[in-house]
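<goal> How does this chain fold?
<sample>
Here is the protein in question

***
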Amino acid sequence: MPVCQHCNTEWTSQQTFKKIFTFKRSLTCPECDATQYLSRRSRNHMSILAMIPLVIGLPLVGLSLPASIIISIQLAAFAAILAWMPTIYTLTSEEEAMW
């Protein structure tokens, strides 16, 4: 779970999960209201994880599996990734360049 760089408070999984769906560049600590940013490493990992369900679907289509099976496998992969994403969040006090 992410830890605020200002007050060293560890965010709960529920707080982190809510922050996943905000598309702001900065995040606000729920305890001290300090502005925090996702680390470059976290952003890179999350962008790779977001592509996994799509990459899984391509070979399944090539195997001529029924659409219902492909969609169910992709939804399961998406749910697993959403459950895992809060654990890879790391925060910084300053915004880092993507590259």
About this structure: The longest strand covers residues 35-38.
